[in-house]
Specification:
It contains 4 helices and no strands. The protein has 68 residues and is mostly helical. The protein has one domain. The radius of gyration is 12 Å and the shape is globular.
């Protein structure tokens, strides 16, 4: 497992794996009040099978996105 608490976001955004790590962090650990961006639904759908999410969050997202 890779922790990205102290990272250069611009460098991570250059690779697909980096974008996935950022997305996982946003979903699993939430946002800060200073964050202005929202999670893009298209990105969640695109990387769904590659995301390492907590089981309860994964179930919630499945319900919200695909109504499963």
């Amino acid at each position: 497992m890779v922790f990205i608490w102290d990272y250069d976001r611009k460098e991570l955004e250059k690779s697909e794996r980096g974008r996935i790590l950022i997305l996982e962090r946003q979903i699993n650990y939430g946002f800060y009040l200073s964050d202005k961006e929202k999670i893009k639904l298209a990105d969640v759908k695109k990387y769904w099978h590659k995301l390492n999410l907590d089981a309860p969050r994964r179930k919630l997202f499945e319900l919200l996105i695909w109504e499963k």
